[in-house]
Each structure stands twice: as structure tokens, then as C-alpha cells.
Design a protein that fits this description.
- With 370 residues, this protein is an alpha/beta fold.
- The chain is built from 9 helices and 19 strands.
- Strand 16 (334-338) and strand 17 (342-345) form a beta hairpin.
- The longest helix is centred in the middle third of the chain and has 14 residues, at 117-130.
- Mean pLDDT is 87; it is low at 194-203.
- It binds guanosine-5'-diphosphate.
- Guanosine-5'-diphosphate (GDP) is lined by residues 53, 106-107, 109-110, 142-144, 169, 171-177, 221.
Amino acid sequence: MSRKQHRVCIGCGAALQTEDPDYPGYVPASALEKEDIICKRCFRITHYNEVANVDMEAEDFERILRTVGRDRALVIKVVDIFDFDGSWLRNFPEYIGNNPVLLAANKMDLLPKNMNPNRVLNWIRQSAKESGLKPVDVVLTSARSGEGIGLLVEKMKQFGGGRNIYVTGATNVGKSSLINRLLHDYGEAGQIITTSRFPGTTLDMIHIPLEGKESLIDTPGIINRHQISHHLTPESLKLVVPEQRINPKVYQLNSQQTLFLAGLARIDFVEGERQPFVVYASNRIYIHRTKLENADQLYELHAGELLSPPTAEELKHIPPLTKTTFHIKKGEKKDLVISGLGWIALRETGARIDVHVPQGVGVGLRRRLV
Ligand code: GDP
């Protein structure tokens, strides 16, 4: 069945389809025999009290956000603190009308121990402001450890006041995990969420009833094509996506030296004073230091083996490494960010750095987080 045939899920109203389990309205082909069909996501929420993540492309996502803009709502925007820039969703304020936005910076359990949460919060507030978003508040959360969830609930009550609450965000920010946390920690106890009623119906969205007439609404995530994760298999992703608190690694580099983050990024320190490059990435990713003059050859000989991921197989499909040059002026405190892979904190002594990443993967400089 294609997406064009319009049988819809009786739970959420999404058009049913059998092709993509991560897209709204997915049902296994065998389920189509039935008269009344509910999609995988509605099935899970009714039977297991659990939401599954579904994703969509930009156009559909904008359509959904506009719906949010027409409602009187509180919008929770979830971002991944580890991939803040990659998961940010630009143009967001355009779509959501005058509704208040509560920013949840998730995966705080990954941040190094010595990071001061207040500084992180200030940094997030400042970054949000620079990109034109004025959240009513920012909460650091961890769907995994449960940290910050109580505070998030408090803020939902404070700013929700009779409004529907929409949970939005890019794919992989932990939106489903966060909602499931809320369902489990605040569900049966009836403190805010009652999942006893069948989730409501609005196209592509799941309404989870709250105490009053209002709902907590799970919106599909938008797929972010700038992330490295789109080019890797689940096995490789286990090495690349941090599972545990990040231990920053310090490399004292002279100019004309290169760092490889496995075979996924090559960072050439072309010009500048000797300085530390502090790498914030998965503890499981292999980092290799070499001379710039040897870097081409090293990559040619060892990409797919020593420099892995990508594995030899993934290397056949991944776009070629493409170079971007960055100039950091004296006095500027910058992080070099590679979407989905992490960031490198740089000294303010000035530098020229060439970064090679698979074509299409986001790289850039930002105000230093730490
Ligand atoms: P969604 O696509 O936004 O719904 O994201 P998911 O809830 O499916 O989570 C994406 C990935 O991030 C999964 O591997 C989760 O286990 C992981 N994840 C979600 N929340 C957290 C968190 O608070 N901390 C960490 N370390 N990982 C998380």
C-alpha cells in the first residue's frame, strides 16, 4: 500500500502506510485485513503506555508546526544538548505563533561532571536569543536518568495553565524517551497525565489526555539530514553516539598537525600557536593524531579499518570528505562543532583550521560552551 491511499489510523488520523516504520501511520501489512486499524504508535501508547518515535520530512513538519501556531498552546521544544546546533530547528518561532516555548535541553547526563549547570543554562538562553527564540524558561533534562523531569513538570504546570502542551523536536533528541518518562513517572499517579483514555485524534499527532480538558501532544520529529548518523549502521552508531558522560580529551597540538575522529572527521590545525584542542565526543570513538603532511596518505590507507567507523562497507556509501576552512580570530572563544559527532573547544589565541567531514554533515563555529 502506498501513502497515497487514504485509509487512516482510528487513533491519530494519520494516513496508514506499510513502508516506513518510523513514519506516521505505519502498520504491518498483515494488520490491513482488519476493519478498524490503529497505527504502530497508537498501538504502543494504548497497550504499553509508551510512545514510539516517528519522523517526517521538513514540509510535513512545518505543516504540523503551523497547526500548533493556531492552537492556544504551550510548546516544549526539545533539543539535544550534545548536538545542540544540529538539533536546534531554525525558523521555529515563525510557525508557533505567540505561544510560549519551554526549552528542554535533554541528555544532560552526557555533559562532563565539571560543567556548571548554571553556565550551561546561560549559554543556552543566550544561544536561543541569538537565533530569535525567547523561551519562557529553559530546563536541563535527562530522560535517561530522570534528572530535571520534576522541574519540567513544574514548569509545564506553571506555563501550561489550561493549554494543550505540544512536545516538538528533531529526530533523536530524546522526545519519545522524555514523554515516556513523563508517562511512567507522572502517569498512573494521576499527577498530570492520565493515559486511561484512548489517545485523541489529530492528523499525525498523538494526544495524551492531561488532568483537565487539555492534552499533552506528541508531534513527529523532523529528520535532520546534516547529522552523521544518517550515514551509519546501528553498530557504528554505538561508537559514535555517546552512551555515557563524556570525558573530554585534551590534545596539545602544534600547527601542521591533524586529528582524525575515527574516519568521520579530519581536523587540520593549519596555522596558529601551539594550543590544546579539547575534544568532546563519545568516549568510544577512536582519535588519531598525525602530521598534516601524512594525513592524506593515512586516510587513504586506513579509512575503514584503523580509522573506523565508517567500516569498509559504510565507506562505499558515505559521501566523500569535503573541506571547510575556519579562521578563529585572536580573543574569540569558539567551539568547532561537527553535527552528531561532538565539538572541540579551542583557545582564543587564533587559528586557521581545515575540517574535512562527509559532504552534507554540518560543521561550524559557535560561542564556547565551557
Ligand atoms: P526521538 O527521536 O526524539 O523521539 O528520540 P528517542 O527518544 O528515540 O531517543 C533517541 C536516542 O537518544 C535513543 O538512543 C535514546 O536512548 C537516547 N536518549 C534519549 N534521551 C536521552 C537522555 O536523556 N540521555 C541520553 N544519554 N540518551 C538519551
